[in-house]
Amino acid sequence: MEREENNFRDRIGTMNAEGKRSWVYPKKPEGRFYKYRTHLTWFLLLFLIASPFIHINGHQFMMFNVLEREFFIFGQPFWPQDFYLGVTAMIIAVLFITLFTSAFGRIFCGWICPQTIFMEMVFRKIEYWIEGDRGAQMRLDKQEWNADKIRKKGFKWFLFFLISFGIANVFLAYLVGSERLLRYITEGPFQNLSTFIALLIFTGVFYFIFSWFREQVCTIACPYGRLQSVLLDKKSVVVAYDHKRGERSKGRSKFRKNEDRAQLGKGDCIDCSQCVHVCPTGIDIRNGTQLECINCTACIDACDAMMDKVDLPRGLIGFYSEENIEKEEKFRFNPRMKGYAAILFVLVGILSGMLFLRTDVEATVLRLPGQLYETHDNNIISNVYTFKLINKTTGSFEDVHFKLMSHKGSIESVTHERIIVPENGLAQGTLFIEIPKALLKDEKNKVEIGVYSGEKLIETTSTNFMGPRSFR
């Protein structure tokens, strides 16, 4: 008996004793937290769907075109040369999630994760609308295939496919741009067959996830659930069951009208199992923190509703830490959290400095491979170089020219009479740098070059200048 009661330690909630899939039929949640989640969901879905179709100064609000190396974040262009900024931002995101998890558990999964948002707030709502609540869905799956079941299942799967196709199109807009996506749509699938096939593949992946794999993404595929086991401690605030109040000395028991449960030693938990029925990952929160729990707070709403009905105080399930339940201690930042926060603060400062110091133009000047220096009249030494100018802004730079800043000499472009760097574009070519021999200290000299647009200095760079070896 004890072994059966503790089977949650041996397998996840979506698996039975034989190791087979145990389908989860969560009851439709209701309550204040569910309303908060719904409002947040509409905002996040609006942001996700609208972002690739919003343009600022002619640029897509969010785009990640990896193949063509075009990136726009909040309407600002970024180039592969800004990769270090992306890496720093990703490290900050991972550290923030780590800090947030150590303090508040998997609340990101239940409230912000796209998988949960689409599954619980889109596909699950459609399922409730077509098939009904938990009991109706269970009866429908058990009954023989007839006209009613075929109609409901077919209509549900058809809507699931349409929404999956829509999600795939939105993600394609992030990758190739909304304008190109709209052009693909107007031209038709046969004019862009390879793209259409890729779109159908992603549609199939989304359809498989939301129609069959479902909560197993959170319990099996996602590594974040395993990560939380090494991040949580007794001070972490998670969705938890107050076992001291719920069990007391004689444990939980069914509700009986007009009985004094506290005097009888019975816990406030009336063993209604509503917290289990409403859980989207199929766990019993009364067994303690489990990796399947995504902190969606559905069990809090269900328990509070039952407490109201039996005239007992709310909060049997809520946001608690283990120390909060056992010792009634308030939440405090422990040294580990303070360490995470300090590192996060430093990295955010570094990223802010990088963004502040990020130049509008990136200049690269390199000596042409395999070319030696040349000696001209009046002991003038000449080197040939290639240059590349990348414009990271939404405006073009005209009348661009180079000046030597570290030596007296001249720079002459041999491929451009007039250099123009277009918006979000680049200009490249060849130039000569000429410096008097008397100003060279060695055979390899570092020279500083200023890049000007008219009279405005827009970037500085450096390169090596080769000259004759000195025997002084």
What does this structure look like?
This protein is α+β, with helices and mostly antiparallel strands and 472 residues long. The chain contains 17 helices and 16 strands. Strands 8, 9, 10, 12 and 14 form a 5-stranded antiparallel beta sheet that branches. It has a 4-stranded antiparallel beta sheet with strand order 13-11-15-16, with no helix packed on it. Strands 3-4-5 form a 3-stranded antiparallel beta sheet. A hairpin with a 2-residue loop joins strand 4 and strand 5. Helix 7 crosses helix 8 (178-187). The chain is elongated, with a radius of gyration of 32 Å. The model has no long low-confidence stretch (mean pLDDT 89).
Characterize this entry briefly.
The protein has 472 residues and is α+β, with helices and mostly antiparallel strands. The protein has helices spanning 2-5, 32-50, 83-104, 107-111, 114-131, 134-142, 147-176, 178-187, 193-213, 216-221, 224-231, 243-247, 261-264, 274-277, 298-309, 322-326, 335-357; strands at 55-56, 59-60, 62-65, 70-73, 76-78, 238-241, 317-320, 361-367, 374-376, 380-391, 397-404, 410-413, 419-421, 426-436, 444-453, 456-466.
